[in-house]
């Protein structure tokens, strides 16, 4: 089957891409503004380069068309912490996708334990086995898109002792996104 994306609706294109480029890791991003720690998952997320260490995450808009809190916080100068999601954190991560008022923290609303590893960065999810501490560098707007790709520079990383060895080999059981389902180590879990 040959498909012409110029003839397809946005929801069809999303379905095709999200079920084709798999598994996509989930960036569980925490940002901070005026003392409120925001935590939200994003599945349009990939590494971009090693030198400099860069990632890209694409952020949609709220239902009313305004920027999501994460993007608003990026633009307000917030540092960025990305916690990775293990199987045990899947339900909490799904809850944190719920849209809350800008002044309410998902950490507090959903009782997600946090810990601050580096003072100027937002907290990470306490039981995450890995977190990347990043600085937002720029947006890369796409004409006609509801999504805003954002470049993030990785400045620090946290790994639980049991997932990294002295040679820097990392063994994580991160959840990835496959369409509307989640995948871990090649196995669909929901």
From TrEMBL:
<keyword id="KW-0288">FMN</keyword>
<dbReference type="InterPro" id="IPR012349">
    <property type="entry name" value="Split_barrel_FMN-bd"/>
</dbReference>
<dbReference type="GO" id="GO:0010181">
    <property type="term" value="F:FMN binding"/>
</dbReference>
<keyword id="KW-0285">Flavoprotein</keyword>
<dbReference type="InterPro" id="IPR002563">
    <property type="entry name" value="Flavin_Rdtase-like_dom"/>
</dbReference>
<comment type="similarity">
    <text>Belongs to the flavoredoxin family.</text>
</comment>
<feature type="domain" description="Flavin reductase like">
    <location>
        <begin position="23"/>
        <end position="177"/>
    </location>
</feature>
<dbReference type="GO" id="GO:0016646">
    <property type="term" value="F:oxidoreductase activity, acting on the CH-NH group of donors, NAD or NADP as acceptor"/>
</dbReference>
<protein>
    <submittedName>
        <fullName>Conserved protein of DIM6/NTAB family</fullName>
    </submittedName>
</protein>
<dbReference type="Pfam" id="PF01613">
    <property type="entry name" value="Flavin_Reduct"/>
</dbReference>
């Amino acid at each position: 089957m040959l498909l012409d994306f110029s003839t397809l609706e946005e929801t069809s294109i999303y379905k095709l891409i999200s079920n084709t480029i798999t598994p996509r890791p989930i960036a569980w991003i925490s940002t901070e503004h005026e003392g409120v720690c925001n935590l939200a998952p994003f599945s349009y997320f990939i590494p971009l380069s090693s030198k400099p260490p860069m990632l890209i995450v694409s952020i949609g808009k709220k239902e009313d068309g305004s920027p999501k809190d994460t993007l608003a916080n990026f633009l307000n100068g917030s540092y960025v912490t990305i916690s990775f999601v293990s199987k045990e954190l899947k339900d909490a991560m799904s809850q944190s996708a719920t849209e809350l008022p800008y002044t309410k923290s998902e950490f507090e609303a959903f009782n997600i334990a946090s810990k601050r590893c580096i003072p100027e960065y937002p907290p990470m999810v306490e039981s995450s086995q890995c977190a990347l501490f990043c600085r937002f560098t720029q947006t890369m707007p796409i004409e006609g898109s509801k999504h805003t790709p954002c470049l993030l520079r990785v400045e620090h990383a946290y790994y639980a002792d049991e997932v990294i060895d002295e040679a820097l080999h990392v063994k994580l059981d991160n959840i990835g996104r496959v369409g509307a389902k989640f995948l871990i180590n090649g196995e669909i879990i929901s």
